[in-house]
Write a structure and sequence with these properties.
This protein is mainly alpha-helical and 99 residues long. It is built from four helices and no strands. It has helices at residues 2-9, 12-40, 45-74, 79-98. The chain starts with a helix and ends with a helix.
């Protein structure tokens, strides 16, 4: 996406992209910390936050190992694994948004 913006709008977007990307990550970090507090209250906040974040952390830790094994087994065709996971994630997001 950033490459398309740079080609379409030129050099100034090269400065805007990291600023907007960093701002989005900052807001995401704040939202991940405050949303469970607002929804569930302060009772057991740390434990609840741990349970909510555990699946993402486990998958983030396993991803390099899984992708490395896929590269060793399938070579460059492992890129299709990455593309498939991306497509499935997009479909899941669209399903969640509609319900």
């Amino acid at each position: 996406m950033s490459n398309i913006c740079i080609v379409a709008f030129g050099g100034p977007t090269a400065c805007a992209f990291p600023i907007l990307h960093g701002s989005g990550n900052g807001i995401l970090t704040i939202a991940k910390g405050t949303m469970p507090l607002a929804l569930f209250g302060p009772s057991g906040y740390g434990a609840r936050l741990g349970w909510l974040n555990a699946p993402a952390r486990i998958l983030q830790a396993a991803a390099p190992l899984v992708f490395g094994a896929a590269l060793a087994a399938w070579g460059l065709n492992a890129i299709w694994l990455t593309a498939g996971v991306g497509v499935l994630a997009t479909i899941a997001l669209l399903v969640v948004r509609r319900t």
